[in-house]
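2 proteins. here.
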Amino acid sequence: VQLQASGGGLVQAGGSLRLSCAASGSDFSSMPMDWYRQAQGKQREFVAFITSSGTTDYADSVKGRFTISRDNAKNTVYLQMNRLKPEDTAVYYCTTNIYWGKGTQVTVSS
């Protein structure tokens, strides 16, 4: 399985970004998918997950601001990020918890 995250960038605090993660493989629809992030000098931390059936959960720090979703027809998982804060600045990674993609940088300016 190969994962490719995209959609990062520079945004002002309060703004929005949508990250995408395209996955290869024919069994994507059966895979639970997670987003993690790693800020400079900090450990990687969990952000959100979505099961194959669409059940979701979030880290407390992003609950109510971020939404994870998936489109199985496109083999893609998304992370809609609203009301972004400077502390959301990090490299964001998508993962099946076995396979990890290269991350995409999100920078939120104050």
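next one coming up
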Amino acid sequence: VQLVESGGGLVQPGGSLRLSCAASGFTFSSYAMSWYRQAPGKEREFVAADTGGGGTPDYADFVKGRFTINRDNAKNTVYLHMNSLKPEDTAVYYCNANSWVDNIWGRGTQVTVSS
């Protein structure tokens, strides 16, 4: 059972990144997939979620209109498309898979927004 995030890096303010989270070892399509982030000295916070089943994704207010979450069940992968990035978006971004019986976290990928 594993989640592996990738796609983080250094980007200038106003730039874009696409994060990926590859899942293995469980039935991906049966899990709600989410992204969280944790900035230095702060608690981990919710960013976006796709519960699957065709429902409307959910977003934290501070990313609405800038970030988009989508999943590819055929590839067992969930993505986070991040646009108009701000310095305050700097954080480690974590992927989460959740079901009635399980809660799985990845190790995270660092996103740094700086000029």
